[in-house]
Structure formats: structure tokens, C-alpha cells
Amino acid sequence: MRSLFNWIDRRTEQRLRQVAHSHGRRSLLARLGVALVGGAVLPMLPFDRSGQFMGAQAAEPGKAPGAKAHDDPMQCEYWRYCAFDGYLCTCCGGTLTQCPPGTEASKVSWVGTCLNPKDGRHYLVSYNDCCGKGSCGECLCNNNERERPGYRLGVHNDINWCMANTSSMFHCTTSVIVGVA
């Protein structure tokens, strides 16, 4: 039995010396540091709330079924929603520009540049999440026209923008025109 333990000790020592010879302390410390910092930062990363594109599922009362979708703020194809990702506040008790009662607008937002087909002009549109209640669950839209990667946060729509508010619960999203592009 003693010889078995001696053999295990020798093999372990040989292997550790090989590893130590090929990898210095600095590389070990660097990898350990990356693991520690990465583990601490992971919970702070924004989460992806993109889902399956479902289109607008609710129709505005009194609208004819043949109405043009780019004119109807209850439809995902509405012209202001070119970079929209979330639930339409128009289906959740709010309006195009105002959050539903019991929620507040996010302190940060993303922007898109959308073409209004009626006047042929491009408009700068600010998308503000409404925070403070659980997800509305109605009229999910995910339009990614000219979306940028996640490291360009101001033009990336797959982030919970409620992270700067007291309550980070996402409810729905508004679409506010802030100027002509």
C-alpha cells in the first residue's frame, strides 16, 4: 500500500512540475482574476428580453381589418416601431408617448431613425421602457431595423432599460418622436 502512495506522490509531483514549467504564476493569476471579475460582473449584465416575433395580436377597436399597418399604432408594422423591441404600451393601457398608470418611464432609452411613409422624412424616435410592473404580455413586437451590436447600447434594443430605475421590472415600451433626423 505504501508503494502505491509513493507512486501516486511521484506522478502528482511530476505532473505539477510539468504544469509549473509550462505556465507561470502570472498566467495563473491572470486567469484567476478574469474568473473572479467575470463572475462578479455576470449578474450585472443586461438580460435579453427578445422573444419570438409575434406581430401585433390586438386590433384597435373600430379599425377595419384592411387598415394599413404603418398607420395603426396597435400594429407592429406602425412606422414609429422600426427599432422597437417590447410590448406596445398602446395595448397595455398607455399611449404612444405615455406609460400606463402605475408605471414610470425608464431613465435611459434607445433610439431609432424611422421613415414616415406619409411625408417621406426620417424621424429620430426614442423608445422608453415603462417600469414598475411585470410584463404586459400583449402585442409583443421585435423590429431590428438598423440595430447595432450590444456594445453600442444607445442603439441596441435587447436590453432591459429599466435597470436605472428604482424598480427594474419591465412592463411595456413607448415610442416618442424627438426630432427630424
- Poorly predicted regions: 47-66
Quote the distance from N terminus to C terminus.
81 Å
Largest sheet: 4 strands, antiparallel
Q: Number of DSSP strands? A: 6
Class computed from helices, strands and strand pairing:
alpha+beta
Helix and strand sequence: HHEEEEEE
* Cα-atom radius of gyration: 26 Å
Give the fraction of residues assigned to helices. 10-25%
Q: Number of helix segments?
A: 2
Mean pLDDT: 78
General shape:
elongated
Strand content: 15-25%
Quick overview:
This protein is of the alpha+beta class and 181 residues long. 21% of the residues lie in helices and 20% in strands.
Brief descriptors of the model:
181 residues; alpha+beta; two-stranded antiparallel ribbon; 21% helix; 20% strand; elongated
Written overview of the protein:
This protein has 181 residues and is an alpha+beta fold. It has helices at 2-22, 25-41, and strands spanning 85-87, 104-105, 110-116, 121-131, 140-142, 170-180. β3 and β4 (121-131) form a beta hairpin. The longest helix has 21 residues, at 2-22. It is elongated and about 85 Å long. The chain starts with a helix and ends with a strand. Residues 47-66 have low confidence and may be disordered.
What's the helix and strand layout?
Elements: H1 2-22, H2 25-41, E1 85-87, E2 104-105, E3 110-116, E4 121-131, E5 140-142, E6 170-180
Antiparallel strand pairs: 1-5, 2-4, 3-4, 4-6
